[in-house]
Design brief:
The complex is a heterodimer of chains A (518) and B (314).
Chain A lengths: L4 H17 L6 E6 L14 H7 L7 E3 L5 E3 L2 E6 L5 E6 L13 H12 L8 H4 L7 E8 L2 E6 L6 H6 L29 E7 L3 E6 L23 E6 L3 H9 L5 E2 L7 H6 L3 E7 L3 E6 L9 H10 L2 H8 L20 H4 L6 H11 L6 E6 L3 H15 L5 E6 L1 H10 L4 E6 L5 H8 L14 H12 L3 H18 L2 E5 L2 E7 L2 E2 L15 E2 L1
Parallel strand pairs in A: 1-10, 14-15, 14-16
Antiparallel strand pairs in A: 2-3, 4-5, 5-7, 6-7, 8-9, 9-10, 11-18, 12-18, 13-16, 13-17, 19-20
Chain B lengths: L1 H28 L4 H6 L5 H10 L6 H13 L13 H36 L4 H15 L2 H15 L15 H35 L2 H8 L4 H29 L3 H6 L5 H10 L3 H29 L7
The chains are: A alpha+beta (518), B mainly alpha (314).
């Protein structure tokens, strides 16, 4: 035996060295979610957390790129007819669903038929059924690799709306996602991850899809080459921020995608944590109710705008991570330029003059904020303090988010510190602010002429025309002050140092493909 | 006895009906629309109205209440607005998490508090008593979330002995599941020990002053026997009442601790449902906890005569 042992030693040594060089076994990437998801049905019962998870599992014909323009995903290319009413999608070869079935045009037709069925309760149905953006006249398949969409009128936002995250990316799923009773079971999509287990209130686990057909170009947004580098992703539901931070420090969690700006300095000081700060496309703004007896006077609104140092406010609230942006066009938008960079400059003397001219005599103005989105409260406190220097008396009322949203929807406020989720086209940003208040009390800016200009921007694909419209609308907004946009916000992600490849982007949604544990 | 129990159970029905009406009304009075919350800041009025109609939220309130009550009578607490899941199984699943923590913590607290209270009463105004009273007062005063976070940071983060976040049911593996429960149970035990110790001490002091205790001591009965045989049985009854109240209170959910320790319990379910204006869940949880409260108090009343024969069930 002892004679044979030396003969075995090289073999044992080789085996040991091979084992050392082998890739790490079964890795799980643990990501914090601040609340449970609502469902796994894309674009049906959803919120931002739901989108974050589901968009790792399903994919649509098109998706958002890094610069928030739209690029093909399941489609290899998209051809648009000259009149802008026909979109022809050529499907990529070799794309498989999680159950092994190959993607065909028939699956696209089936998914879109389901989307357009009112019984599905798809969130974006109204955008495609004639009530909103367009009326989808037909979805046809001339051959198994081609799908044709016909719409009633040209629209600059047709593809962007298809790609919208809150629409579930119009994710194409296999019909086995439904049970025999026609009810939703679980998504059988084409994404780099498939749904593993959803333990309600605790965690959602995604598993690597080994047969994922990645695109060849570099990753860009939700498009491009996506590779599931880890075997599992576990989204852990940790509502409390302090507990989430403790979990990160103790290596119970690998990534916090939405770390508060107030933790920036503390996280930066740690050697075991890396930070990634990406400008987002959400808007943090002060809404002014132009129908309020006091605030209907534009001089008072302008005085308020001129009393604020929005540069200081943005820096203060975001812990120096964000810069002022008084435009409804986000700084990361391709349409943000020199015109949009022009904003309000603090001028207390002019503010006081305007208030005197308006006959303002210290009447209290109520400013609503909430603590769920801490930046709204922090902004409100600074607004109150800065405006006081001009003689404006502002009282802050803190409400819970549900109550504030209710008041927002009804236009029942004087001032409101609000945060809008990201819209990925400036026309949609303006659209969320503008509209007839009689029919849509939530709108802050009721200017029929400006709305007519916006309608052109929503329909026309002409980039130069759209830019000129956005420039014009920005100038008018600065003039009429229906709202004061402060800044766009930052998505601050904190990861353990052994996490490689995680990168934030303007939508604020996590992307866990191409991320590995070292 | 059976008649008493049945009468008490029948009497709970009007109580629960009042609770149901109060909860339903209060939730509808609070501003905030669950559909608006669900659809977010993108939703227009037409979409909100359509969704409300789909969910039956546009019906007159008395009709909504009637429909809900009729369903409750059949054991159906409705469907969650947030995730479209049936409410009753959701409540039971979450209750299991909270119940384990509460029952173990209250049991441990009782085991600690009763002897501590007895000893404090026996050694009244002496250093031991002062120490126990001080400790109990300190535990009473400390906010549970603060204590919980402190223990989490020390034992979880600093020492790494226990997990900081997460939950695993005991059914998935006792050792793994128990690890997640140690800190919340310890936190709750400490808090409730403070509460129960003060009550145990106060009632023991009162009983010690009675003649039969003095008589037992005069007869030369060993002190431990005086305390165990004569003081404890008579002093325990008020503490038992308090235990019942505490249990009923806590079984309704320990929302703060569940949030700190990321436990999917009943309290967190209720808080999340209130923020989301998830009417069926809030109504269901409050009705459920009211029922639990009533049943626990009934149990306490039934146990009372065991400790105080002067009190009869009738």
């Amino acid at each position: 035996m002892t004679r044979l042992l030396p003969a075995f030693l090289p073999g044992l040594l080789a085996a040991w060295l091979v084992a050392l060089a082998s890739p790490a076994v079964a890795q799980t990437l643990r990501v914090r979610l601040n609340a449970d998801i609502r469902s796994t049905d894309p674009g049906v019962n959803r919120d931002a957390n739901t989108d974050a998870v589901v968009l790792h599992v399903v994919e649509g014909l098109v998706a958002l790129k890094e610069d928030t323009t739209v690029g093909p995903l399941l489609a290899s290319k998209v051809d648009v007819s000259a009149d802008g009413k026909t979109y022809t999608f050529s499907l990529r070869d070799g794309v498989k669903f999680h159950n092994g079935a190959l993607l065909t045009a028939d699956d696209v037709l089936w998914s879109w038929k389901r989307f357009m069925d009112p019984a599905t309760n798809w969130r974006c149905l109204s955008e495609f059924d004639g009530r909103g953006l367009v009326k989808l006249l037909a979805v046809e398949s001339p051959n198994p690799k081609t799908v044709v969409f016909r719409i009633d009128s040209p629209s600059a936002l047709f593809l962007a709306t298809m790609a919208r995250m809150d629409c579930g990316g119009s994710g194409i799923v296999h019909r086995s996602s439904l049970g025999t009773d026609g009810k939703w079971v679980a998504p059988v999509g084409t994404g780099p991850f498939k749904l593993g287990e959803w333990k309600r209130g605790q965690a959602i686990e995604l598993l690597r899809f080994d047969d994922y057909a990645a695109r060849s170009e570099p990753m860009s947004g939700y498009t491009g080459a996506k590779k599931a580098e880890v075997e599992r992703v576990r989204f852990m539901i940790i509502p409390d921020s302090a507990a989430a931070k403790a979990a990160l420090y103790s290596n119970a969690v690998d990534i916090i995608t939405d770390a508060p700006s107030s933790d920036f300095a503390e996280l930066k000081a740690r050697t075991d944590i890396k930070l990634d700060a990406s400008p987002s496309m959400g808007l943090n703004a002060l809404l002014l109710q132009t129908r309020d007896p006091l605030l209907k006077d534009v001089r008072i609104r302008r005085a308020l705008a001129l009393s604020l140092d929005t540069e200081e406010l943005a820096a203060s609230v975001s812990e120096g991570l964000s810069k002022r942006n008084n435009s409804a066009v986000p700084t990361t938008s391709p349409f943000y330029g020199a015109v949009q960079a022009n904003g309000f400059k603090r001028d207390l003397a002019e503010a006081k003059r305007l208030l005197a001219a308006a006959g303002y005599s210290g009447q209290p103005i109520k400013l609503i904020a909430n603590k769920r989105y801490g930046s709204t409260f922090d902004s409100a406190v600074l607004v109150q303090s800065m405006a006081q220097a001009a003689g404006l008396k502002i009282e802050i009322e803190v409400l819970d988010w549900a109550t504030q949203l209710d008041k927002y929807g009804k236009g029942d406020y004087q001032l409101m510190s609000f945060t809008y989720s990201a819209r990925l086209d400036p026309a949609l940003n303006f659209e969320m602010l503008m509209g007839p208040k009689d029919k849509q009390p939530r709108k802050v800016w009721d200017n029929p002429d400006a709305q007519a200009r916006l309608a052109v921007a929503l329909d026309s694909p002409d980039r130069a025309l759209r830019q000129s419209i956005f420039d014009d609308l920005h100038k008018r907004m600065l003039d009429e002050v229906p709202a004061i946009v402060f800044y766009n916000g930052i998505e601050l992600a904190a990861t353990r140092r052994n996490v490689a490849g995680y990168k934030g982007w303007p939508t604020g949604q996590p992307r866990l493909w191409n991320v590995r544990l070292q | 006895m059976l008649g008493y129990v049945l009468r008490r159970l029948l009497l709970t029905l009007p109580t629960l009906l009042l609770v149901a009406l109060a909860v339903f009304t209060l939730m509808r009075l609070i501003p905030g629309d669950p559909v608006q919350l669900m659809l977010g800041d993108r939703a227009d009025d037409a979409q909100v109205a359509e969704q409300r109609a789909r969910m039956g939220l546009d019906a007159p309130l008395p009709l909504q209440f009637g429909r809900w009550l009729a369903a409750v009578a059949k054991g159906d607490l409705g469907q969650s607005i947030t995730d479209q899941q049936p409410v009753l199984p959701l409540i039971l699943e979450r209750f299991r998490v909270s119940a384990v923590i509460v029952l173990v913590a209250v049991a441990l607290a009782t085991l600690l508090a009763v002897p501590a209270g007895l000893v404090a009463a026996w050694q009244q105004n002496r250093p031991v008593d002062l120490f126990i009273v001080l400790g109990a007062t300190l535990l009473l005063s400390v906010p549970s979330f603060w204590l919980g976070l402190l223990l989490l940071l020390f034992f979880g983060l600093q020492l790494g002995w226990l997990p900081v976040v997460g939950y695993a049911p005991l059914s998935d593996g006792f050792a793994a599941g128990a690890a997640y429960l140690v800190l919340p149970i310890v936190t709750l035990t400490l808090i409730e020990t403070g509460v129960l110790t003060r009550m145990a001490r106060a009632s023991a002091i009162e009983v010690q002053q009675l003649e039969y205790v003095t008589h037992a001591r005069a007869k030369g009965v060993p002190e431990w026997r005086v305390l165990a045989r004569h003081v404890l049985p008579n002093a325990f009854a008020p503490t038992l009442t308090l235990i019942g109240l505490v249990l009923g209170n806590l079984l309704g959910g320990i929302a703060v601790l569940e949030t700190v320790f990321t436990l999917p319990g009943l309290g967190r379910l209720l808080v999340d449902a209130i923020y989301a204006r998830d009417y069926p869940v809030v109504q269901g949880v409050l009705l459920f906890t009211a029922t639990i409260y009533v049943l626990i108090n009934l149990l306490v009343d039934l146990l009372y005569p065991l400790f105080d024969p002067r009190v009869s069930v009738q």
